[in-house]
Amino acid sequence: MKCIVLGSGTSTGVPRIGDDWGDCDPDEPRNRRTRVSILLESAEGRRILVDTSTDLRQQLLANRIDAIDAVFWTHDHADHCHGIDDLRVLRYGRGGSIPGYASGFTVERLRRRFDYVFAGQHGYPTIVSLESLDRLRLCAGFAVNWCQMPHGPAQSTGFRFECDGKSVAYATDFSEIRDEMVDTFYGVDLLVTDCLRREPHPTHAHLAMALELAERCRARQTVLTHLDKSMDYRTLAREIPDGVMVGYDGLEVRL
């Protein structure tokens, strides 16, 4: 199994509009960050996309992704779902709509905002068949487990996917570590975790919290993502312990 980090940046990306790189070196390609998303691929070539970031088209082109088997959403914030229209092209040539999954609350919010995606419109077919995660345990050959995580006053869904004897956890947009998260992610081969900045933040994990989650979960490898303009790639890479990587757009981890 492999995990591709499609996007590794915060909601405004790096650089911010106005060519604002903050503390990030503009000459380091790994500091150029689109909005967060990952893709998992099994040994048999089955693919799961997690989140439809605002930069989805660019990410799919950059990584030569032209088909997926399912899509999952962590929550409905704009940087995680507003690239949803780019799923239309992935619907072409399929016998049916793309299976999609999210928590019940997120399903409700997505249906309200993007009704044409889930119900078709003006003769166009349904792009995604959206269902709640409640009864889901297996998708496209991947075993699926999940938990709800605090994201300031909101919530985000953390996922654990297992396939080919390996496991990947995706925990983005959380602001507190809860026991359910540790239980869900425990012993995972790869943890991809929220890590906005070094200083605490009211709705996101900071560096110390991300490293704490990795340690408590006994993750074998960890990738830091959702990085803002204060997190220069090379500087951060020198600060983190063995077994932890600074995520960047296009990073591919094979398990």
TrEMBL record:
SUPFAM superfamilies: Metallo-hydrolase/oxidoreductase
One Pfam entry name: Lactamase_B_2
Start and end residues of each Metallo-beta-lactamase domain: 34-226
InterPro entries in the cross-refs: Metallo-B-lactamas, RibonucZ/Hydroxyglut_hydro
Stored Gene3D superfamilies: Ribonuclease Z/Hydroxyacylglutathione hydrolase-like (3.60.15.10)
Protein name: MBL fold metallo-hydrolase
